[in-house]
Specification:
The complex is a heterodimer of chains A (about 280) and B (about 450). Chain A has about 280 residues and is mainly α. Chain A is built from 14 helices and no strands. The longest helix of chain B has about 35 residues. Chain B is globular and about 65 Å long. The chains are: A mainly alpha (about 280), B alpha/beta (about 450).
């Protein structure tokens, strides 16, 4: 197991760290040692700082779609077992099964500002047409909403799995106490989903930037004005569009370092809380 | 039963197995010998193309070229590889890094400068040897010179197009405009767009914000306004007064409501659906626009407009052919492919079947080649005439040329044309960043 971890995780991480101190355009042999120059250039360019800020926005915006909404949907379906529930669950899960690029391309047609369906729909309500992906005010929200369908669907399945492991005795006790459906949900069901919610929330914060990657790549390429960019797409752009391998590696190292420090902080807080 | 003593049955099985094994080895040896003989006679090369495999005229035309080449050269097998247009440089670089580089690549001109600096492109002139002078004669010299590096030609023009004004003659009539006299200057474009907008359609769209991050149309605007993105000494001049004036004129179309502030694909879709009066874009889309217009509206073309009292000076977009193979036999096979595709016959097929401009001057009037085609297909005539005053495509200097182009397009052209950014301040800021990036202090 350790060997596999070394080969697939720690080895590449170490290699990336080494590359971050080199000048290399991918095609020739790696150039000379440049010290912290790649890091300095990375922090000097405004795009990386903006991409980091947008990554936090993505994490915050996707959090409800990865926790509250799928939990709500899963509980609704769990409370009404039967064929209809299975059909709804299958329909809600459908976005997970469709190829991500195909979904993104379909959205491109729907969101076409001159002839798209989205503007036809809002036009029926007397709302002026919008440039959904070309307007910096709406582009990030659109990317979040487009991505949310898949995230919500997948996490709903995980919540459904968690609901199947609820302690039946507590549910029976609630029934004996004549608790209403809302009281049972609020005081019995949701507390038992705490661990799942924390896990999915953390995964959402860590992976939000990666989840939106395909939609950003197909729909906006980080624009307009960088508002839909994030650190992962920036790393890809630096590494595979500009072939700034050193800078891309430096960016990856910074992201890794950030999450390592955040994880340590989290563990420390939990340990302190446990001692109290 | 003694498990350690072979039974008569197992002995016979061993015998049969041995015969099969020896037979297989002999057969393999035979195959190997045959394969060597095959290799000696046939050469297989790979061809990476962004037109290959696409739906419509570009994909079908590329396939027709390959089929024709296969008939002419049965000793050469070409294995085509489809690659998205925006990923050509990325895919080629990663393939080179992985030591699986394609032998011939259709490479966009906006990526050529960086490719020349960072990829092991071979000198086509050297590979062609004695055949070079005769073959290169007649090909548009401005385009041949664009492919020169270290004193020899490393890229030959393949699928080249220039920006032109597509216009909807039906919308012109409905707006009270005369389709026989299309606008020739940016001011006339604005006037016509105002009439079209008043008639309830989208006026015009200048495709400067290119989805492939090429700045060919931006350069065409700046050149025609009397400026350039890079001067003769390689200095960055995209913040010159002329460049500012050119992009200001395009921005004015947006701010005055004559040009929708949308992505180029959306504008193309609107024009193809008969909802837009004028579309200023590469002739590369002629085939698809023509197909959409059939039965829907009358499509016409006009020359790229002037921006001042001087002649319009559009530059070109499109792609060249480059050879990466280091193996001598593959280099010769690659040259045969490049030679065919850039021959009179190849260029004729490219024009007739895909819609790119013919890159040998005499083809358009030669009855043996494209004279009949141009007699019937007049849409390419305005850009064909402008081919004579074509400005060379200019790349930013150095190995980070592509990064500089993307920076220019994303951080300057897009906010200026689509989002009302201050033209002078934006160009000045981006020019300084590009100077810093390419080392032009």
């Amino acid at each position: 197991m350790m060997v596999l971890l070394l080969a697939w995780v720690y080895g590449p991480a170490l290699f990336t760290a080494v590359l971050s101190f080199l000048e290399w355009n991918l095609t020739g042999a790696p150039g000379g040692f440049v010290g912290f120059d790649n890091y300095a250039r990375l922090f000097r360019e405004p795009e990386f700082g903006q991409a980091a800020g947008q990554t936090f926005l993505y994490a915050a915006a996707l959090l409800p779609f990865s926790t509250v909404i799928p939990m709500f949907l899963a509980i609704m379906l769990w409370q009404r077992p039967g064929r209809a529930s299975t059909v709804y669950r299958s329909l809600l899960f459908l976005p997970v099964m469709v190829a991500p690029v195909a979904v993104a391309v379909s959205w491109r047609f729907v969101l076409n500002p001159l002839q798209g369906l989205a503007n036809e729909v809002i036009g029926a309500f007397g709302i002026a047409p919008m440039n959904w992906l070309g307007n910096p005010a709406s582009a990030l929200i659109v990317i979040v909403l487009v991505t949310s369908a898949k995230v919500t669907a997948f996490n709903m399945l995980l919540y459904s799995a968690a609901l199947s492991t609820l302690d039946r005795r507590t549910l029976e006790a609630a029934k004996l106490e004549r608790a209403s459906a809302w009281e049972t949900t609020r005081f019995v069901v949701i507390p038992q989903l705490h661990t799942t919610t924390v896990l999915l929330g953390l995964l959402s914060i860590v992976l939000a930037g990666q989840w939106v990657f395909t939609n950003v790549s197909v729909l906006t390429q980080g624009g307009p004005d960088g508002v839909t960019d994030n650190v992962y797409y920036r790393i890809y752009t630096l590494g595979f569009e500009f072939f700034e391998t050193g800078m891309a590696s430096a960016a990856a190292a910074v992201v890794l370092l950030f999450f390592a420090i955040a994880s340590l902080g989290w563990l420390l807080v939990r340990r302190i809380n446990a001692r109290r | 039963m003694n498990l350690f003593r072979p039974s008569p049955r197992s002995t016979s099985v061993r015998l049969v197995t041995s015969i099969i094994a020896v037979g297989s080895l002999l057969a393999m040896a035979g195959c190997s010998a045959a394969a060597e003989a095959d290799t000696a006679e046939n050469t297989t090369i790979t061809f990476s193309s962004y037109n290959y495999g696409t739906a419509g005229a570009a994909g079908e035309g590329t396939q027709a070229l390959l089929d024709e080449f296969a008939e002419l050269h049965p000793e050469i097998t070409v294995v085509p590889e489809a690659v998205p247009v925006a990923d050509v440089l990325t895919k080629t670089k990663t393939a080179v890094a992985a030591d699986i580089a394609p032998d011939v690549v259709q490479l966009g001109y906006s990526k050529l400068a960086e490719a020349l600096e960072t990829l092991p492109l071979q000198s086509i002139e050297d590979i062609a040897g004695d055949e070079w002078d005769e073959h290169a004669e007649g090909i548009n010299q401005a385009l041949v010179e664009t492919g020169e590096f270290d004193g020899t030609t490393h890229a030959l023009p393949y699928t080249v197009s220039i920006p032109t004004v597509f216009y909807n003659a039906d919308i012109f009539r409905a707006a009270g405009l005369d389709p026989e006299t299309p606008p020739t200057s940016i001011d006339e474009v604005a006037t016509a767009a105002a009439a079209i907008t008043a008639a309830g359609k989208y006026g015009v769209y200048f495709g400067a914000v290119d989805s492939g991050k090429s700045d060919y149309l931006t350069q065409s605007v700046i050149n025609s306004a009397g400026g350039s993105t890079v001067d003769a000494d390689g200095k960055i001049t995209l913040d010159s007064p002329e460049a500012i004036a050119g992009l200001q004129a395009v921005q004015d179309l947006t701010t005055e409501g004559l040009q929708p502030a949308v992505a180029i694909e959306d504008a193309l879709a609107a024009f193809s659906a008969g909802e837009m009066g004028m579309l200023v874009m590469t002739t590369a889309v002629l085939g698809s626009v023509q197909a959409s217009a059939e039965g829907l509206f009358e499509l016409r073309t006009a020359a790229f407009p002037t921006f001042n009292d001087e002649l319009a000076r559009p530059t070109h977009s499109g792609a060249s052919l480059v050879i990466l193979s280091e193996d001598e036999a593959k280099q010769q096979a690659s040259w045969e492919l490049v030679k065919f595709m850039t021959s009179k016959e190849g260029y004729t097929m490219i024009t007739e079947q895909i819609g790119y401009l013919p890159l040998r001057a005499d083809l358009a009037e030669d009855p043996a080649y494209l004279a009949d085609y141009f007699a019937e297909n007049t849409l390419l005539l305005p850009p064909l005439e402008q081919l004579e005053t074509l400005a060379p495509y200019l790349s930013f200097p150095g190995a980070k040329a592509n990064q500089a182009t993307v920076l220019f397009q994303d951080n300057a052209v897009s906010p200026i044309v689509l989002r009302d950014a201050d033209v002078e301040a934006t160009l000045t800021e981006v020019a300084d960043r590009i100077r810093d990036l390419v080392g032009d202090k």
